[in-house]
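The following record pairs a protein chain with its ligand, 2-Phenylacrylic acid.
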Amino acid sequence: TPTLFQPQSLGPLTLANRIVMAPLTRNRAGTGLVPSPLAATYYAQRASAGLIITEATQISAQAQGYQDTPGLYTQDQIDGWRAVTDAVHARGGRIFVQLWHVGRISHVDLQPGNAAPVSASAIRAQTKTFVHNGFVDVSEPRALAIDELPAIVNDFRQAAANAIAAGFDGVEIHGANGYLLEQFIKDGANQRTDAYGGSIENRARLLLEVTAAVAQEIGADRTGVRISPVSPANAIATVSDPQPQYDYIVDQLSALGIVYLHVVEGSTGGPRDVAPFDFEGLRGRFKGTYLANNGYDVDLASAHLAEGKADLVAFGRAFISNPDLVERLKTGAPLNALNPATLYGGGAEGYTDYPALTDPTPQ
Ligand SMILES: C=C(C(=O)O)c1ccccc1
């Protein structure tokens, strides 16, 4: 039976183990939204993960929704990420970049020309985001015109090309947690009456067009997709018919041959049983590698691998405070506690200064 510490093939890659570092926003990008100068150290410290998925990274200026999250649409940003991928590869690590467009989870202060954020429909999410002066209500969005969608698909495609130029091993398309692509999937946020709304197929259309474009650009074997079928993250209501909606999406993603499906099982960062949903059924429909996430500890992860419910398991917060999480899970060593005060924003404190067992005083 497969264990967490056995290698796993992933398209052209061989992962040293089945433990994945989940995408984690840290709000530490520098001027020009280039990765933090400390990002190369931060990710290299965690290179023993079978696979690292970076923090969510913008495909365009319009795609930004929080203070100081990095982009991948300028040459400076590509150069900044190259330092990260080189540092991770120098330690034998593997790293994908998560590409996002936040859609309505944004504020006019962050938008080009202080314009309204965009979404499937002009429906504001009852949630907040953080900008330079703290937490603020997200701004009223406007509905994207259908003739704006090809440019957004192209921004994902171009960012994926930029990812390969920056040395990434692949790309994860962020289709989860109430951001733009999920705003199209879930009918609480999508009241469109054109070809992108009103049915399971129409609501999935943008995610599938983006995925097809990225897969065509960089290869389906370097393209993953993240979904969160029943998560209420960012105040998005669960789609009326989650099981048929996501069965359809997964069948289409399987047909595209993407290398992995990353699934937030339950409420992001919260209860796994937030709503009835057949994750095992979804896993069974997917033809590629199934990456399970949300609330896993080493016992649940080992059980789900042994039971064939997952191929890889992603850990988020545990990787923030334990750069050598793989070693600690393997040996049963105690885990460092997470300091929530230094999760978002700031510098080295709570970012690159968590100790490893064999490196108690990191730089
Ligand atoms: C990228 C995020 C997600 O996917 O939920 C995120 C953004 C801000 C804070 C926490 C998480």
